[in-house]
Amino acid sequence: MTIIRTVTLILLCCFISTAQAWVDTDFDGVPDKKDACNDTTANSVVMANGCIDTELLIVDEDAEDDAEFDDAELGATVTNNAALIAEQCRQQRDISVAVDCFGSILQPVYFDFDKSVVLLTQRPTLVRVKQYIEQHPQVAIRLEGHTDNIGSDVVNQTLSLKRAANIKDLLVNEYQFQPASIEIVGMSSKKPIADNATIEGRQRNRRVEFIISAE
After folding, report:
1. S-S: 148 plus which of 75, 132, 176, 202, CB 3.0-4.6 Å?
2. Could you tell me which residues are beta bridge partners of residue 140?
3. Please, what is the average pLDDT of the chain?
4. What is the domain-level CATH number for residue 83?
């Protein structure tokens, strides 16, 4: 009887520990134990550390005079702003204008350190790409994988290419993209967009970027 009670207590402790590990207070898809910004708006598109990329926030200096958006929309997160603009991009009939428009607001997919697995928090970006391509199927996509500067160039080259390849696999297998329309390339750590001397900078550099062009 004592053995049964002991086993039961062990299982109960494991269950509680597992449940606590996956608590997500702000519902952004990043567990609290890994979330550096645990007060983001629910369902926001965030980086792997749970924070919104502030470099991609859209500022509208003419907000008060813009009749197309209400105050709530103008004060929304980058996720909501990007969704609104993405819809405007999809409605563009001129393919060149549409490509430039969408390319200006499409944010990268971010990755954990030394990982190539696509996090669930990054899926909204892929959904946005799918919605755009459905409207403009004639465009081509170049996926550029990147890393931070930790590790050798050989390791980072392989990792950056694997990140791009995993994004392509998702687009093809889950979002029905044509493989021939997607090119992948690994850039290693050669094209940082932030300072690798900081944790935040390295986080932003671990990414896959979408380069969209008219075929």
Report:
1. 202
2. 213
3. 76
4. 3.30.1330.60
